[in-house]
C-alpha cells in the first residue's frame, strides 16, 4: 500500500551550519579494524602505500571523511605511544587485553596513523591515555607530534617526519566512568585539569580542540560536574568539547542478530536509535545552563549499532554484518545530529572498518562497501551546509506498541547556494507518495540517489557486494512542487537545480 506524506521547506531561513565533523569516524585497535582493515604492511601483496591499503583509502576518500578518532576506545587507556614509534623491527609487541587478548604488534603507531589520515584527507583526533598513563606521557606525545626544535621534535624527524604534525582534536581519556578506570566524575575532573593544562599543542597558529570524557548514555553526573567546573574555572585549563557515547543495542550484552531478524527487532532498533534525540536534549539542557553561548561542543564520539558477533568470528573482535536497517539507522542519526547542529559539532561512528557498524568490510584482498557507507556518501553534500527548516506531515509507522514518524527529513543549503533534501521512509511495508513544497526555490530538476533493498536485513557480501547500492534519481519540479514515491525502507538525497 502507498501512504501519503507532505513536506514544506523554508529555504529563505538558513540556520546553523552542519559541521562536517558530524560525519566523522572512529578506528580502534580492535579485531581487524586497524590490522587487515587499514594496515597490511609494506611487504603485503595487497596493494598498499607505505603499508596502508589502497582500496580502503580510495573508498574513504570518496566519503570525504573529515576526522578519524584513534587509537581507542578502551584501547586508548592502555596505549603507550612510545611502543609505536621507531624502526618497525624494534617495536615492542604487547597484548590487547580488552579485545580478544591478542598480540598488539605496534607496527601501526603514530607515524602510520598520521600517514593514513593524510592519505584520506582527514583530520586527526587522538585519544590520550588517562587510565594507565600520566600527564607527562600525554604532554610528551603531543610535543613529539607538534613541536619544532626540541629533543622530541628531533626524534620525530629521525623517525622520518621533520615537519610537525597537525593534531585537530585531543581526547583526554575514554569512558573514564567505565573501561577507562571507573572514575567518579570528581576524580576524572581532577585528572582532566592536569591533562588539559600540561598537554600543549606547539604548532603555531594551529587551534587544537580538547575533548573531555562526558556522559555514558543518559547518565548526567559527568555532564553536570565538568560543565559546572568549566563555568567556574579561573584559568589554567580548558576544554572545547564533551564526549557522549551511546550505542543502539537493544539489551546488554549485545545479542541481536545482524541478519535474519524480524520486524519486531527492526522496529525496536529504530525506536531505540531515535532516542539519541532525547539524549542530546538532556545533555544540551545541562550544557546550556553553564554554557549558554554554546562554546563547548557535544561530541558523540561513539555511536552506532552493536549486534551479536558474526557467527564463527573471534570473540572480542566485534565483527558484525551491516544491513539496510543500519542504513536507515545512520540517516536517522545524521538527521538528529544536524537538527542539533548548534551544539553537536562532531560525531564518530563506531567503527570505520570491520568493527561494529562499519563502512567497509575486508577479507584478505577483498573489500566491500556496506549500506552504512552508502549513506555516508549520499550525505556528503550536507558537510558544512546550513540547515533549513522543514515542516513535515510524516504519517505514522506502527508495529506492536511502537509508533514512529513514518518519514524523516532534513534540508540544507551548501556553500554554493545549492539546496539539498534528505528523506528517509522508515516503514518497511509501505511506499510513501510525498508532496514536497518548495516556496521561493527556483528549481526545475531534482537529481540525487535513493538507497533501498529487497529486504530490511539485506546485506552486501564478498560474493554479492552490490545487493544494497544507491540508484540514481531524476525528478521534475514544477510550480515549486515536487511529487514522488519513496520506496519502503529507503533513504533518498536530492539536490535541486534551476
Ligand atoms: O567501540 C567499542 C568500545 O565501546 C570502545 O572501545 C569503548 O569506548 C566502548 O565501550
Mind sketching the topology for me?
Elements (H helix, E strand, L loop, with lengths): L1 E8 L14 E3 L21 E2 L2 E2 H9 L4 E4 L23 E3 L5 E3 L5 H11 L2 E6 L6 H12 L4 H8 L10 E4 L12 H14 L10 E4 L8 H12 L8 E8 L14 H12 L1 H15 L6 E9 L18 H16 L4 E7 L9 E4 L2 E4 L1 H8 L7 E3 L1 E4 L2 E4 L2 E4 L1 E7 L5 E7 L5 E7 L7 E7 L19 E6 L4 E6 L3 E8 L1
Parallel strand pairs: 1-22, 2-5, 2-13, 5-8, 8-9, 9-10, 10-11, 11-12, 12-13
Antiparallel strand pairs: 1-17, 3-4, 6-7, 14-15, 16-20, 18-19, 20-21, 21-26, 22-25, 23-24, 23-26
Helix pairs in contact: 3-4, 3-5, 6-8, 7-9, 9-10
The structure holds alpha-L-arabinofuranose.
Structure description:
Residues 301-490 form the Alpha-L-arabinofuranosidase C-terminal domain. This is non-reducing end alpha-L-arabinofuranosidase. It comes from Undibacterium hunanense. Its EC number is 3.2.1.55. There is one protein chain. The chain folds into two domains: 2-12 and 387-497, Golgi alpha-mannosidase II (Immunoglobulin-like, Sandwich); 20-383, TIM Barrel. Helices cover 23% and strands 27% of the residues. It has ten helices and 26 strands. It has helices at residues 54-62, 110-120, 135-146, 151-158, 185-198, 221-232, 263-274, 276-290, 324-339, 371-378; strands at 2-9, 24-26, 48-49, 52-53, 67-70, 94-96, 102-104, 123-128, 169-172, 209-212, 241-248, 297-305, 344-350, 360-363, 366-369, 386-388, 390-393, 396-399, 402-405, 407-413, 419-425, 431-437, 445-451, 471-476, 481-486, 490-497. The strands form seven sheets. Strands 2-5-8-9-10-11-12-13 form an eight-stranded parallel beta barrel, surrounded by five helices. The mean pLDDT is 97. Alpha-L-arabinofuranose binds at residues 28, 72-74, 174-175, 179, 302, 350-351, 356. Residues 28, 72-74, 174-175, 179, 302, 350-351, 356 line the site of alpha-L-arabinofuranose.
Amino acid at each position: 500500500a502507498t501512504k501519503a506524506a507532505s513536506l514544506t521547506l523554508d529555504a529563505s531561513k538558513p540556520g546553523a551550519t552542519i559541521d562536517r565533523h558530524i560525519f566523522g569516524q572512529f578506528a580502534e585497535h580492535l579485531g581487524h579494524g586497524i590490522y587487515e582493515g587499514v594496515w597490511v604492511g609494506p611487504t603485503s601483496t595487497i596493494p598498499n602505500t607505505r603499508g596502508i591499503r589502497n582500496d580502503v583509502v580510495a573508498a574513504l576518500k570518496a566519503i570525504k571523511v573529515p576526522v578519524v578518532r584513534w587509537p581507542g576506545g578502551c584501547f586508548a587507556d592502555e596505549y603507550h605511544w612510545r611502543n609505536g614509534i621507531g624502526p618497525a623491527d624494534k617495536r615492542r609487541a604487547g597484548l590487547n587485553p580488552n579485545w580478544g587478548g591478542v598480540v598488539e604488534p605496534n607496527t601501526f603507531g603514530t607515524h602510520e596513523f598520521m600517514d593514513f589520515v593524510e592519505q584520506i584527507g582527514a583530520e586527526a583526533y587522538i585519544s590520550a591515555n588517562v587510565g594507565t598513563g600520566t600527564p607527562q606521557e600525554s604532554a610528551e606525545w603531543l610535543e613529539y607530534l607538534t613541536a619544532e626544535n626540541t629533543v622530541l621534535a628531533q626524534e620525530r624527524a629521525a623517525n622520518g617526519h621533520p615537519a610537525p604534525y597537525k593534531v585537530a582534536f585531543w581526547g583526554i581519556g575514554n569512558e573514564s566512568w567505565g573501561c577507562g578506570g571507573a572514575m567518579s566524575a570528581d576524580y576524572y575532573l581532577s585528572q582532566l585539569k592536569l591533562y588539559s593544562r600540561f598537554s600543549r599543542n606547539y604548532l603555531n597558529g594551529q587551534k587544537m580542540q580538547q575533548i573531555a570524557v562526558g556522559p555514558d548514555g543518559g547518565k548526567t553526573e559527568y555532564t553536570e560536574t565538568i560543565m559546572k567546573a568549566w563555568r567556574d574555572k579561573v584559568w589554567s585549563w580548558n576544554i572545547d568539547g564533551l564526549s557522549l557515547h551511546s550505542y543502539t543495542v537493544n539489551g546488554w550484552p549485545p545479542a541481536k542478530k545482524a541478519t535474519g531478524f524480524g520486524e519486531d527487532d527492526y522496529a525496536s532498533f529504530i525506536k531505540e536509535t531515535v532516542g539519541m534525540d532525547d539524549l542530546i536534549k538532556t545533555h544540551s539542557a545541562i550544557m546550556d545552563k553553564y554554557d549558554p553561548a554554546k562554546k563547548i561542543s557535544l561530541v558523540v564520539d561513539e555511536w552506532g549499532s552493536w549486534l551479536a558477533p558474526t557467527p564463527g568470528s573471534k570473540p572480542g573482535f566485534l565483527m558484525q554484518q551491516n544491513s539496510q536497517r543500519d542504513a536507515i539507522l545512520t540517516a536517522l542519526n545524521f538527521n538528529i545530529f544536524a537538527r542539533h547542529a548548534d551544539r553537536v559539532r562532531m560525531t564518530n561512528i563506531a567503527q570505520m572498518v570491520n568493527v561494529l557498524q562499519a563502512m567497509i568490510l575486508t577479507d584478505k584482498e577483498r573489500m566491500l562497501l556496506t549500506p552504512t557507507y552508502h549513506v555516508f556518501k549520499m550525505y556528503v553534500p550536507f558537510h558544512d551546509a546550513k540547515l533549513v527548516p522543514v515542516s513535515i506531515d510524516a504519517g505514522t509507522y506502527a508495529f506492536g506498541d511502537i509508533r514512529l514518524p513514518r518519514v524523516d527529513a532534513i534540508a540544507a543549503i551548501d556553500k554554493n547556494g545549492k539546496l539539498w533534501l534528505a528523506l528517509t521512509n522508515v516503514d518497511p511495508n509501505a511506499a510513501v507518495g510525498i508532496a514536497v513544497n518548495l516556496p521561493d526555490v527556483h528549481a526545475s530538476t531534482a537529481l540525487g540517489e535513493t538507497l533501498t533493498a529487497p529486504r530490511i536485513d539485506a546485506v552486501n557480501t564478498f560474493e554479492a557486494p552490490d545487493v544494497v547500492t544507491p540508484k540514481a534519481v531524476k525528478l521534475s519540479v514544477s510550480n515549486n512542487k515536487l511529487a514522488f514515491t519513496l520506496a519502503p525502507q529507503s533513504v533518498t538525497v536530492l539536490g535541486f537545480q534551476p
